[in-house]
Design goal:
Length: about 850
């Protein structure tokens, strides 16, 4: 914080020197000082070097009155620097008083807030807060890769599952998946991807888990949601990390075999996004269990939006635990606790279903009234009472990085794959609709966003497999990947037009489009995630000094706390000054001289990310200094800073993803589009941050250091968009890479496979069709209005051969099969009664166990 003040004072002093003193030597001195600050030299090294420079300047510089004032200021500054090198003196004069004032301003931190901050690990997000990210940390990470076993699962059971799924039957006729699909999911281990092999699970990597969900989501949102939940934050994950050996040995094999179906109940009518304030209670008391008196918990709760609840056999339950009779100890309010409750426990009402926006995955409410369970039902046993919130936030960072981002990416890939082909085979005004410039720009946006989503998904999953638990990136992915998915879904609908909005067996977009708000809403509403979590958590968790300062100030060992606070404080001051200088220099030079570890056409994007990192870090320190705790209430400002952080992170993921794939040259247009789009967004969000910063003087100073040349980044150009659109409107290798891990097998019931077949056929059909148009229609020899009639006349005129006519007829038939939409008799519209067999296998009527 002091660093921001010092930075501003130095800027004023430098401005005085340039305007009042002038001279080449003065400019050289200022340049040398800026260079030293840019290089982040240690304080002692900087001071010694500055001493030599100032001595030389005093001898060689001008002797005017302004020069004398300027030199006097510099010698005073040098004296202060030497004093700061004497740690006992600076601790007494600066650190102790500042720490005392800092403690008064430091807001109290609850246990749940502390646990949320301490959850997970700091990875590349932390580097972006430094102003000088070390690219070696990112580029040295191993590319994510499927094992032979994982690849076989994708090619075998996952492929077979997709073949079994009929989304119209699931969403419109049954309101559920058929019994054979449920049996297949359970028997093939789809609910056991995160369960260790020693318990009968698949023990897949995070990357494999993500790829499986991506592929299923390209076929059916209902199926992907069903598979995601048991493999995300829930009983299996919590048992695996915190369960007792007895709990693991009992539940994990049963979950792996599908004998138990889990759900996890956290959200309720009175506590949604504010999950830490759940009103559901458990009270420690004595009660009867299986004929014996035991110490247990009497539960009262009301939960909703619980996926798999209607068919769950075991309920993971989060509640607040109290011990009024002190049966466990002196504490009355023990805190949030997690327990496993069998479905048939007396007092539980379960089985009714919600209907989430026409997507009938099993989801519903659970209520419990005076439900008594033994204390051993707590996950991890009695020693883990009160540890529920820590358990949840520690594991949420992993699950949130995989489930929703993977499902959203799968949907976006399917939409992009379909739209690229549809725009090529669908003709209007005698040309493919994808050749219209307006449609090209929309398709390019779909491709660029899908590539960004996939890069973030795969690279972050690879980091998890490398041992990271990236809590802040999990929030970034949750928000930005699902929001990008929303844009892609809208764009796909725009290109498809009426084809997209008419529901029926032929429609391959409608249900995915309808499902978008589900991903936006669950696991933390997107508005909350953007406004409060990404920057709010990142500013403390990822900043190199803030958490260290807070921890040191609260250290009960006063002497040690002062020492740690002193190191963090003066490190922070130097950090802020350096970032101010780095921001200015890189903004003025457009980061052209910034050293990065790669060369070639994408090196500039590495440089730009470093530039934004310095500007972002400086802006953060100024905002935290001037607004303090009020910054948390200025949600729009913190959201914009979070957007800048997210854009840097996502652009880094794009570059790393390109690196992981072997730097294919053909993909450079989409890499450039994605990076330009993200950097432009980062610029605009920084610009909006500065426009709305409350202190207008500081906003002006920040703008001078961050954007001295104004707004220099632009959105992707039309020419680039055309190149990107061409990548998916043709059967290219880039199209295959961008849309990898989707269900595109050619078979009669798979529209993605049929679209690809038609796209490939268009390469030979279009020249034939063009010949008919040029030699027949335009000359007046061919007068038929429809293509079948034109083919017949062209064949008779010898414009096309019999083989060409047959090929073009077959192509037209396949295209019209795709373009056509469904229609229904009046009585066929509406949800039909669910078949009894499906009800028996996959649904349970509402049950209250007395």
């Amino acid at each position: 914080m002091l660093g921001a003040v010092v930075s501003i004072l130095l800027v004023v002093a430098a401005a005085y020197a340039v305007t009042q003193v002038g001279g080449v030597i003065t400019l050289l001195l200022i340049a040398a000082i800026l260079f030293l600050a840019y290089k982040r030299l240690p304080l002692l090294t900087f001071t010694a070097t500055f001493t030599v420079l100032l001595a030389a300047y005093t001898l060689l510089g001008a002797d005017s009155a302004p020069a004398g004032i300027w030199k006097g200021f510099l010698w005073v500054l040098l004296g202060a620097l030497w004093l700061l090198n004497v740690r006992p003196l600076r601790k007494a004069l600066i650190t102790r008083p500042f720490m005392k004032a800092y403690l008064k301003l430091l807001p109290a931190m609850s246990q749940t807030e502390r646990e949320a901050l301490e959850a997970g690990t700091v990875w590349w997000d932390g580097e972006l807060f430094t102003g000088a990210p070390r690219w070696s940390k990112l580029l040295s990470a191993k590319p994510p890769k499927l094992s032979p076993e994982e690849q076989a699962f994708l090619d075998g059971p996952c492929e077979e599952l997709c073949r079994m799924l009929d989304d119209w039957d699931i969403t419109h006729k049954r309101g559920d998946m058929p019994p054979q699909v449920w049996d297949f999911l359970k028997s093939k281990g789809f609910f056991a991807m995160i369960i260790p092999k020693k318990y009968g699970g698949l023990e897949f990597s995070a990357y494999a888990h993500s790829c499986v969900l991506t592929k299923i989501a390209s076929r059916s949102v209902t199926a992907s949601s069903t598979v995601a939940v048991p493999n995300s934050l829930g009983p299996a994950e919590l048992l695996n990390h915190y369960g007792t050996e007895e709990q693991k040995n009992y539940y994990l094999p049963r979950l792996a075999r599908g004998e138990e179906v889990p759900c996890f109940a956290l959200t309720g009518p009175r506590a949604g996004s504010d999950a830490a304030s759940i009103p559901d209670t458990g009270v420690i008391c004595r009660g009867q269990w299986q004929g014996k008196e035991v110490i247990g918990i009497r539960l009262n709760f009301s939960k909703r939006y619980i996926t798999l609840a209607p068919i769950a056999t075991v309920i993971g339950l989060a509640f607040r635990l109290f011990d009024p009779d002190h049966l466990l100890g002196d504490k009355t309010d023990i805190g949030i606790t997690c327990a496993l409750i069998p479905r048939n426990t007396p007092g539980i009402t379960i089985g009714r279903r919600h209907f989430p926006i026409n997507i009938p995955f099993q989801n519903g409410p659970i209520q419990g009234r005076d439900v008594f369970v033994p204390l051993d039902f707590v996950i991890g046993g009695p020693k883990m009472v009160g540890q529920g919130w820590r358990m949840l936030v520690e594991q949420l960072s992993v699950g949130r990085c995989i489930s929703l981002p993977s499902s959203a990416t799968g949907g976006a890939k399917a939409a992009t794959w379909a739209t690229g082909a549809y725009a090529r085979i669908r003709r209007q005004f005698n040309m493919p609709v994808g050749r219209f410039e307006g449609v090209e720009s929309v398709i390019a946006r779909m491709v660029g966003l899908t590539y960004t989503m996939d890069a973030a998904r795969s690279v972050t999953a690879g980091a998890i497999d490398g041992g990271e638990k990236p809590s802040v990136p999990s929030a970034m992915l949750k928000y930005h990947v699902t929001e990008m998915g929303r844009v892609v879904a809208n764009d796909a609908m725009d290109v498809h037009g009426g084809k997209g909005i008419c529901l029926g067996p032929r429609n391959y977009l409608g249900r995915g489009y309808e499902s978008v708000p589900i991903a936006i809403t669950v696991e933390g509403a997107n508005i909350l995630t953007r406004n409060l979590i990404i920057f709010g958590q990142g500013a403390v968790r990822c900043h190199p000094f803030v958490l260290r300062e807070m921890t040191a100030a609260r250290n009960p060992d006063r002497a040690k706390g002062v020492d740690e606070f002193d190191r963090a404080l003066f490190g922070h001051i130097g950090f802020t000054i350096s970032n101010a200088v780095r921001s200015l220099i890189m903004a003025l030079t457009h980061a052209r001289f910034t050293k990065v570890p790669v060369s070639g056409p994408i090196a500039r994007y590495y440089q730009h990310i470093v530039r934004f990192s310095a500007s972002f870090a400086f802006a953060v320190d100024v905002a935290m200094l001037t607004l303090g705790g009020y910054l948390k209430k200025k949600e729009n400002l913190s959201a914009r800073l979070g957007d800048v952080l997210s854009c840097m992170y996502l652009a880094s993921m794009v570059l790393k993803h390109h690196e992981n794939q072997g730097r294919p040259e053909a993909d450079l247009p989409v890499v450039e589009w994605a990076c330009r789009n993200l950097l432009y967004t980062a610029q605009e969000q920084l610009h909006s941050f500065l426009r709305n910063f409350p202190n207008r003087f500081l906003a002006g100073v920040m703008r001078m250091l961050i954007m001295p040349r104004g707004l220099v980044y632009s959105a992707p150009a039309d020419r680039l968009s055309r190149q990107v659109a061409e990548l998916v409107s043709n059967p290219t290798e880039s199209r295959e890479r961008i849309c990898s891990y989707i269900y595109k097998t050619l078979e009669p019931t798979n529209p993605l496979g049929l679209l690809q077949e038609a796209l490939v056929l268009s390469q030979t059909a279009e020249p034939i069709e063009k010949r008919i148009r040029v030699e027949g229609v335009k000359t007046g020899k061919v007068t038929a209005l429809d293509l079948p009639g034109q083919i017949q006349q062209a064949l008779a005129l010898g414009i096309v051969s019999e083989t060409e006519a047959a090929a073009l007829r077959e192509y037209d038939r396949k295209v019209m099969e795709i373009v056509n939409v469904d229609d229904f008799a009046p009585h066929e519209i509406g949800m039909q009664a669910q078949p009894a067999a499906a009800a028996d296998a996959a649904s349970v009527s509402s049950v209250h166990v007395a």
